[in-house]
Amino acid sequence: MTYRAIWNGSVVAEASDEAVKRVEGNIYFPPEAVNREFLEHSPSRTQCYWKGTASYFHVADGDAVARDAAFSYAKPWPLARKIRDYVSFWRGVKVEHV
Asked: What CATH code is carried by the domain that includes residue 72?
């Protein structure tokens, strides 16, 4: 079984059950499982008290753009080190278990 992140009919990320990480109800895809051509850097940042600073990406496919719909922790705090550079999706990007 695998997880897929889908936006506008395109597969943005895909990884096996064993490769993904689950944290606080979110699925995090390993960096190599993400199709980076769909991601555009965003200036948005947020701070989590135990994970650290999240960086955001817009997910774009043609004219369809989901703003700040992907996020990642490049330098997470020690308790969240297992998700370093992993990417999670929300805001309209569908994550499905297939």
From this structure: 2.170.150.40
